[in-house]
Amino acid sequence: MRKLRSDFIHTGDQGFISNHVIILDDSGTILDLVPFEEGKNSGIEYYPGILVPGFINAHCHLELSHLKGKFDTGTRLIPFLKSVVSQREIEQDIIMQAIADADREMSAEGIVAVGDISNKTDTIQVKQNSRIHYHTFVEAFDFLQDHLAQSFFDGYKKVYDSYEGLSRAMVPHAPYSVSNTLFDLINEVNADDQTVLSIHNQETIDEDLLFLDKSGAFVSFWESFGFKMDAFKPTGKESVYYAMDRMQKDQHTLFIHNTQMKESQIRDVLSWNPNSFFVTCANANLFIENALPDYSQFLNAEASLCIGTDSLSSNWHLSILEEIKTILRYNSFLGLEELLTWATFNGAKALKLNDRLGSITKNKQPGINWIQDIKNVNGKWIPGKDAKVKRVV
Ligand SMILES: [Zn+2]
Asked: What is the largest CA-CA distance in the chain?
């Protein structure tokens, strides 16, 4: 049995509490959370700073880890996608080593579960043996080419089948890259499962422009790869409506990035499917688009926000604490207390892991992280620039 105490405990779902002791059994299961009484409890481990549940990384691409430091920052999305596509072949052992290293990095950063996008089977072995729980989103796209949907799908279905035995779903990449036919084929794969889905959403203004009136850079971008866009008809509504009209509405669904999203659209998504979650990847947004979502629009709509790192191709670290620092640096109206809920409880709920992760609650096994170097600025707690996280359970 272990007893842990800190200056503050963040429970994940209830925010900060002080003067409490977490009691756990040897397997890390929470037995109790009790008030601290001087001289009453013996054998208490004290961690100056705060203790929080293990972090949930709601969006990552583990298989792109070898692309760390390869691309320029601030290019915007389409040139970024171009550089990802035009990467030269890389030796498989370098790719596999980078995946293993990234998995260890996330574990050291206190991450206990990851929603991970996969186009290939490269990450299977690491996922089978990791301390981290992974839910794999096998991602499908066909460059909006209905007539090619089936042949693209056949390839993704093989990848999906390879993940059998692991937590998985097949998901659309983004509205601007998935045809009607491919959406139908994806839906058939998930039809019998209660699973968790995801889609990249409104990361750049060109996505909305494509669907509003077929303007913006996507038409020429796809045509530069030889994909004809003559048959594409704009819907006259922002890209997220194209996704909503085609995705299953009875599944937990993660919308990723949402940099361009407005409050009315967030409200429409939530009335379409109340189990919708909005994942922010702040460092990746700054890396690629030099922009961040307007978080107040999500709070006004009472949406659940979660935090993701995206991949090392568009980030410097795979660390939820670093994402929290970035969000707070540019949004001082938010506070650490609120963001820790995004990083733990909301992520666990989104990935349907809240029966065992995401909060310091009896019988859960959330993992416990220790964050040092926090400070109070104008009545709000924020992490110091050099704040570090260490997993203690
Ligand atoms: Zn992504």
From this structure: 77
SS3 197: strand
In this structure, how many other beta carbons lie within 10 angstroms of the beta carbon of residue 245? Answer: 14
pLDDT surpassing 80 at residue 62: yes
CB neighbours (10 Å) of residue 249?
Answer: 12
N-term to C-term CA, the chain: 12
Above 80 in pLDDT, residue 38?
A: no
Going from N- to C-terminal start, the domains of the chain cover: 2-51+378-391, 55-357
Query: In angstroms, what is the span from residue 1 Cα to ligand 1's centroid?
Result: 40
Residues 6+ apart with CB under 8 A from 40: none
How far, in Å, are 209, 246, 260, 286 from residue 204 at the CA level? Answer: 9, 21, 7, 12
Tell me which CATH homologous superfamily contains domain 55-357.
Answer: Metal-dependent hydrolases (3.20.20.140)
Ligand 1 centroid distance, CA of 38 (Å): 48
Q: Buried b / exposed e across 150-183, counting CB within 10 Å, b at 16+?
A: eebbeebbebbebbeeebbbbbbbbbbbbbebbb
Task: Give 217's DSSP letter.
Answer: S
CA of 311 to the centre of ligand 1 (A): 7
Question: What value does the mean pLDDT of the chain take?
Answer: 95
For 325-376, what is each residue's pLDDT tens digit?
A: 999 999 989 999 999 999 999 999 999 999 999 999 999 999 999 999 998 8
Give the C-alpha separation, 62 to 57, whole Å: 11
Alpha-carbon distance values, 188 to 116, 184, 192, 351 (Å): 21, 6, 8, 21
Provide the CA 15 distance to its chain's centre, in angstroms: 21
Q: For strand 2-10 and strand 20-24, is the pairing parallel, antiparallel, or unpaired?
A: antiparallel
Cα of 198 from ligand 1 centre, angstroms: 10
- Going from the Cα of 293 to the center of ligand 1, the distance in angstroms, rounded, reads 15
